[in-house]
């Protein structure tokens, strides 16, 4: 099968490309000029230009392909990024859907997020029905992903075969955008002493990539949460400290305290003029998100896709090894000043 992957040089996308190649598919990576193509060095993949904001480039890139994987998007929890989130996640997805239909592509695999469905003060895992409250809509990023999902369903109504995949927080090598690495580096740099209530779903990026291969044969209209392990923040912090060799104990912080800590971090960033929008740094939205539960029930993906997640510890160990090899992780802990330099670009 000929498959075009949008976002094929990203964290998840690059692993999807390699998984598709291993399965014997012919893969085209649709990339912008600034995309880091070296992440696919050695892979027999064809590169073509394409931009989410340029519909004509997508139509041209998708022509002649049987399926498209849309694994590109923007993650930001800063309010100032709302316009960009809408352009990239919502309008970009609309352009991908339109281009698929116009280029004669049969099937679209779209990468969403468990954040569309989970995120509440209750530790009860949720399935594809979602949390029956509005708590999860704590940031425009979540809203933008929900709106993007609606664009995919509109495409289905117009005849496009769609399969929606919603991974948990992915762990593994190659997270250059620090989607999950920021917590690892934060613990290593600053020996973070507090743990908020809440929890998250962690999944090996290799398992997520394999699920994309399996989704090529899934029923059209399939919607799946791709989970791994549901861990409380305390359990994840303990696992992080164990893998990193950090012995500093952590102290619990209430949900309200985490919210105030996030607000303080946001005010600090604004005062320094370093709230860059796309940066994953401590702000009010992250303070809120970190204190919620993102537990999911992925039994549908296990049953229908054969999704079989691996223990997340091995993915975390690979990610830590990769961060160290890239010079992004200290061998010994630093202090608060070095933490601020790393995450807020503070320099004397």
Task: Describe this entry's structure for a reader.
The protein has 348 residues and is of the alpha/beta class. It has a domain at 2-175 and 201-229 and 296-310: 3-Layer(aba) Sandwich (Rossmann fold), CATH 3.40.50. It has twelve helices and twelve strands. The chain has helices spanning 11-22, 55-62, 82-103, 140-157, 181-190, 205-215, 233-244, 255-272, 284-290, 299-304, 312-325, 336-344; strands at residues 2-6, 26-31, 46-49, 67-70, 107-111, 161-167, 169-171, 194-195, 199-204, 222-226, 229-232, 251-252. The strands form three sheets. It has a seven-stranded parallel sheet, sandwiched between helices. Strands 7-9-11 form a three-stranded mixed sheet. The termini are far apart. The mean pLDDT is 89.
Q: Which key phrases capture this entry?
A:
single chain, 348 residues, alpha/beta, Rossmann fold, seven-stranded parallel sheet, three-stranded mixed sheet, 12 helices, globular
């Amino acid at each position: 099968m000929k498959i075009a992957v949008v976002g094929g040089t990203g964290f998840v996308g690059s692993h999807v490309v390699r998984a598709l190649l291993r399965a014997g598919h012919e893969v085209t990576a649709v990339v912008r000029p600034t995309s880091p193509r070296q992440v696919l060095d050695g892979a027999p993949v064809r590169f073509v230009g394409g931009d989410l904001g340029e519909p004509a480039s997508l139509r041209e890139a998708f022509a002649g392909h049987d399926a498209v994987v849309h694994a590109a998007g923007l993650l930001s929890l800063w309010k100032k990024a709302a316009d960009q989130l809408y352009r990239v996640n919502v309008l970009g997805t609309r352009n991908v859907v339109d281009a698929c239909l116009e280029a004669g592509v049969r099937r679209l695999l779209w990468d969403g997020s468990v954040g569309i469905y989970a995120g509440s003060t209750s530790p009860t895992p949720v399935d594809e029905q979602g949390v029956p409250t509005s708590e999860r809509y704590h940031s425009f990023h979540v809203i933008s992903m929900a709106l993007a999902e609606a664009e995919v369903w509109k495409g289905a109504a117009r005849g496009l075969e769609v399969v929606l995949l919603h991974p948990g927080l992915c762990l593994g090598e190659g997270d250059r955008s620090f989607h999950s690495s920021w917590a690892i580096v934060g613990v290593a740099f600053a020996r973070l002493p507090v743990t908020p209530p809440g929890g998250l779903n962690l999944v090996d990026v290799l398992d997520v990539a394999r699920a994309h291969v399996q989704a090529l044969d899934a029923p059209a209209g399939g919607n799946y949460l791709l989970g791994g392990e549901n861990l409380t923040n305390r359990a994840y912090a303990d696992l992080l400290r164990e893998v990193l060799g950090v012995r500093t104990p952590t102290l619990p912080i209430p949900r309200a305290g985490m919210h105030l800590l996030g607000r303080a971090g946001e005010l600090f960033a604004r005062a320094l003029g370093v709230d860059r929008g796309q940066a994953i740094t401590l702000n009010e939205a992250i303070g809120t998100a970190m204190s919620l539960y993102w537990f999911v029930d992925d039994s549908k993906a296990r049953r229908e896709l054969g999704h079989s997640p691996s223990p997340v510890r091995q993915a975390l160990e690979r990610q830590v090894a990769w961060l160290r090899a890239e010079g992004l992780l200290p061998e010994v802990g630093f202090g608060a000043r070095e933490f601020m330099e790393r995450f807020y670009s503070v320099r004397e």
